[in-house]
Design brief:
With about 290 residues, the protein is mainly alpha-helical. About 75% of the residues lie in helices and about 0% in strands.
């Protein structure tokens, strides 16, 4: 094959798809595969090149490990279902296409543009000792001294404030996915259900939700993985009172200068994410895919 033939082959339609996916492959390799390989090496290999599990043993022996695991799972178990119910309610309301529904959707999506840390600081300004909540209650005469919401004595309030902040900040992610899914459902199905006398809740349960299952599956996977990575909001509101796995990986890397244990934390978090994603894919598959 001479040079001219090679040039024609490179610009042919047969090769074009590979050129189009090349930037994606380069992005995945640079920002996922290479860091993943480095994390695996750091977690399983010593500086002398020997394979070991002692960094995982050190992670489990860390005094904060089980607290971080407990609080991470608690936050995910509370935040994700709460966001799903809220987002589904708003999406169904938007899908009625009432007057001003588009503007309402844009307003609901505003927190999506706010960073984790900024959201945490906003809610910190509400619940801190001299925050807006204490000022409001004092102005109403309901309290005569500040309530220490974010303190060791009120650990439930600390967890609750993190749930509120994360719920406010990230529900829009689920909302956008569900609104797109609802708009893809043909209204012919709902009209056919009405012809057979279905009530609103029957249309929701037997028509809308089954057809929305692929979008619900995607939303749950994305939101659960992001919730497992929750860090800035938890640090801004809870500090070390509410340790989370992502936060411990950060502290081990930057504070304790131990990249090996930090990588072990990161890989452990990735395994939990993969298991939960597999569970969603396994148990929320559309019926026709299962058969």
């Amino acid at each position: 094959m001479n040079r001219t033939q090679v040039t024609r082959w490179l610009v042919s339609e047969k090769v074009l798809p590979y050129w189009l996916i090349l930037p994606t492959l380069a992005y995945v390799a640079a920002f996922f595969l290479v860091p993943l390989a480095q994390a695996l090496l750091l977690a399983f290999r010593t500086e002398g090149g020997q394979w070991t599990m002692r960094f995982f043993v050190r992670m489990v022996e860390d005094v904060r490990f089980f607290d971080a695991l407990k609080f991470t799972l608690i936050l995910v178990a509370i935040v994700v279902p709460l966001q799903l119910v809220t987002a589904l309610s708003i999406a169904l309301l938007v899908n009625t296409r009432f007057r001003g529904s588009r503007s309402f959707l844009y307003i609901c999506a505003i927190p999506l543009g706010i960073s984790d840390l900024a959201a945490g600081l906003i809610w910190f300004s509400l619940f801190t000792q001299h925050g807006y909540v204490n000022s409001f209650l004092y102005t109403l005469g309901l309290i005569d001294k500040p309530i220490y919401f974010l303190s060791t004595q009120n650990l439930g309030w600390v967890v609750g404030s993190i749930v509120l902040a994360e719920h406010w900040r990230a529900t829009a992610i689920v909302l956008v996915i569900l609104v797109a899914g609802l708009q893809m459902i043909s209204r012919d199905y709902l009209e056919a259900a009405e012809v057979f006398g279905a009530r609103p809740w029957q249309k929701l349960w037997h028509v809308t939700l089954p057809l929305l299952k692929p979008s619900l599956q995607s939303a749950l996977i994305i939101r659960t993985i992001l919730a497992l990575q929750m860090f800035a909001v938890a640090v801004a509101l809870g500090g070390r009172l509410v340790p989370v796995l992502a936060g411990e990986a950060y502290y081990w890397y930057y504070l304790y200068r131990n990249a090996n244990v930090a990588s072990a934390y990161a890989l452990f978090l990735m395994v939990i994410s993969l298991l939960l994603a597999w569970g969603y894919l396994r148990f929320l598959r559309p019926r026709e895919v299962r058969s």
